Amino acid sequence: MRLRRYVGVAGAVLTSLAISSALQSAGAQTPVNFGSYTISATAPGWEMWEDQPSANAHPEGGGQAPYSTSALSAGGRGYGLSSVAWPGATFANADKVALLLFPRDVQGVPIPDAVIGLVEQNGGQANYPARAEARTGENRPDAAFDAQGAKLKAHADPVLAQATATMTGATGQAGFSFGNAETIATSVLTSTAGQATASSKITNIDIGGVIKIDSVTSDASATTDGVTASSTGLTVVQGMTIAGQKAYVDDTGVHIGESGQPANAALSQIANQALTEAGFSFYVSQPQQESDGATGSYTAGALYIQWKPPENPAENIFVIALGASRVAVTAAPGSTFTAPTTPSPIGSSTPSVAPSAPSASPGIASSPATSASPTAPAAAPTPSVGGRPIAATFDGLGGQAVLALAGTGLMFFGFRRVADDIVDRAPSTCPLETT
């Protein structure tokens, strides 16, 4: 029976180790302690701007389809936005602009409160609707918008902000079109760092029937631990043709032919003549990477296509950007303030008296002096195998589950048999018992 008691105790020890290991694993997921930080990501899909010399503002119009952005900042503030044909924050939030510009009086005569209230209540209807927007501090951390051909999602909590936008196809002005598109922007705080990632992919691009591209993918990522930041990214253009001729893009621009195998002079002349007659020109932006201690950013390269339609008296110009995913991170380590202790006078024969507590100042923690605490006993050593904690040998949820099951089984066997022995034991007569 003594052996069975030992088996039950061993099972209890194993179960407690499994529970403590699970708690330690959960504690390891605590976000990194930053004193200040900004983690942002932006993933545009198809970006287009239109302008003309006679416009009142430049550019005259523009938008991204689709578009995703996310951000985390100090104080647990998170923000996520995904949209289709996003026109920019100013035009998308017309109610805020209206309230800012709405007069409160006309030539010294106050506007009635009822009129002001009507503007405040109905101004939101002028906002751009095709978006999913989430920010911390609201009742729900998730937002979604489903429309024909588009699905938008956004999430925001103190440690994770994410926005996702997908489209099944769209057709723009002058025969511009593309197939499936997806953009994802993520800002997250892990247990060791702040990370930002932006990714976009757009397929089956057709620009005026002259330029066709199978796909453009653009990725950017950055991370910071509060001391050092790093970043990377890449934009890839695949399956490009110009006037039916194969073409490719590199850091020097757009070329007719295939990489390493330029087209002959005749084919190049055909393609270039088609581009000139259609009013197209190309530009390639180099990736932009910056790093300074705990601050880093990356903007992936982009292919810019400028189109000035022929027979165009108004001189309209369209600019299309493909790629240019971008991220930025910065952080400063957090600090823990510990109130300094006042040493006792040395060589004084007068019994020490605890001083009265000083008055607290804003932002400074203070507590009254107390008598010395008794010395804490040394902590018992952690059970180990070969110098490694036993709990560490069962790392992960699978190992912890095995450890817990083994402990529970031993407890059941040990304590169950002990209980059976006590219940089934044959009664004995006490030698001092008398009848």
Describe the structure.
The chain folds into two domains: 1-30 and 397-422; 34-93 and 128-333, no CATH class. The protein has helices at 2-27, 89-92, 94-101, 113-122, 265-278, 396-424; strands at residues 34-51, 61-73, 77-83, 105-106, 109-110, 131-135, 142-147, 150-156, 160-167, 170-171, 177-178, 181-189, 194-207, 211-224, 229-242, 245-250, 253-258, 261-262, 280-285, 288-292, 295-299, 302-307, 317-323, 326-333, 384-385, 388-389. Strand 4 (105-106) and strand 5 (109-110) form a beta hairpin. It contains six helices and 26 strands. Helix content is 21%, strand content 41%. It has 435 residues and is of the alpha+beta class. The model is unreliable at 344-395 (pLDDT under 50).
Summarize the structure.
The protein has 435 residues and is an alpha+beta fold.
Distance between the termini: 32 Å
Tell me the strand percentage band.
Answer: 35-45%
Biggest sheet architecture: 10 strands, antiparallel
Total number of strands? 26
What's the arrangement of secondary structure elements?
Elements: H1 2-27, E1 34-51, E2 61-73, E3 77-83, H2 89-92, H3 94-101, E4 105-106, E5 109-110, H4 113-122, E6 131-135, E7 142-147, E8 150-156, E9 160-167, E10 170-171, E11 177-178, E12 181-189, E13 194-207, E14 211-224, E15 229-242, E16 245-250, E17 253-258, E18 261-262, H5 265-278, E19 280-285, E20 288-292, E21 295-299, E22 302-307, E23 317-323, E24 326-333, E25 384-385, E26 388-389, H6 396-424
Which features characterize this protein?
6 helices, 26 strands, single chain, 10-stranded antiparallel sheet, alpha+beta, 435 residues, globular
